[in-house]
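notes to self, project folder thing:

trying the whole complex as one job this time. last attempt i did each chain seperately and stitching them together was a nightmare. two parts in total, labels are on each line so i dont mix them up again. if this works i'll redo the older ones the same way
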Amino acid sequence: MVEATLCNTEDSSNKLKKILLILINICIVACLILAVVAIVKNSDSKPLPEASPPPFIPETEITTTTVMPEATTAVTTPATVLSSDESVSSESVSETAAAVLLSDYDKNFYNNYLFIGDSISTGLYGYNYLNAANVFAEIGFTPENIRTGDVNGTTIYQKLAVAKPDKVCIMLGTNGLSYVSVETMISHYTLFIDEIRDITPDCEIILFTIPPVTKEHEDTKPENLSLITSFNEAVIALAEEKEAEVFDVYSLLADENGYTKSEYAEADGLHLKGAAYTLILSELQVKEEETE
Amino acid sequence: MKNIKKIIIAALLILSLFTACGSKEEATVVNPDDITAAVMSAIEFPSPVKKDAESIGVYYTTLDTNSVERMSVYVCGSGAYPDEIAVFEFTDSDTADAGYEAVTKRYDDLVATFTDYTPEEMYKLESPVMSIYGSYVIFIDCSDNEKADEIIRTYYKQ
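result (full assembly):
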């Protein structure tokens, strides 16, 4: 009887061992499967398209301006996302000998305006001062290639046909200054104005003079004040010929030597800081309201 | 009896591994604003301007903002530089995959734009941070992408 009891105990023990071994094997397999799934699902990178190498190495170092945020707060410019009823105030105010320049504007004032330009004009929506819908601008646009180019697949002519703006403000010419003659650029500009009028015959056209550059930019890059001044004189003449208005951005932003004032100049000396745009929009609004 | 004890201990050890595997699968929940703040505190971004769901469309043209739970995106407001930081939290990992495609499109657009315009800036686009962590998609191109990636990885330890 003792032997039978011992045998029964041994059988139970063996059964228990077998059960535990089976459970362990199941756990191991399950763990392995989950590990494989985790590796596949949580892969932390995918192949990137290789970027084209730069065609040349710059001789000068580009310095950048920064806005350093605090650890828990988001960085905002003086005017970011605005409600439709909100007016914008900027902290920067420039003073000339003749008048105090303004830096307040009403974003809604420009609801029926279309600003056309190059990379400098992208700052109008880049800084959130205007809605992107009111700006047709792209890096690299010139008076010539804007007629054949597009912004996200939309040509300027398609944009004009859909938007039907009351006023069109054009600031082109910075690109191409150094390798295209003023005469050639103005000839394309002339055709462009004619084409705008064909599509939107009732809209008023305002030609902007192009901004200055800084002394540092002039010393290192092809764009210089002489070229800018020559082009702007031609733009003013074109406006008179085409019965368009002129808005003198250059004079707004230039110091006594004709270079961009430091408070308006981006680090590259060509593009503009946010304060320049609020000034432009404020002064333009005043001018437009006076003529209405 | 001793053998049974050894088997039980071994089973417990394996079960603990099972638990560890499970914790690695859980998505790390992070506020995108915290990530961008951390990166921008360590690395200079020129003229950064924050974008929201209404204003981001002109930059991320194929992004479905309806699938974005939260985002923190800064672009260079002046248009002079390609520097950009974008952290998107999507509704799930499937929409994150689609979001990654939208981010890739944005990257391609930046490369196409700055290659001829300011080629001296192209180094920022040569090795950008472009990553998916669960439902998060992160894109950074800046003057120190390696450092940016190190900071990102502290939030998504694997």
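what i see at first glance: Residues 93-117 of chain B form the longest helix (25 residues).
need to look closer tmrw
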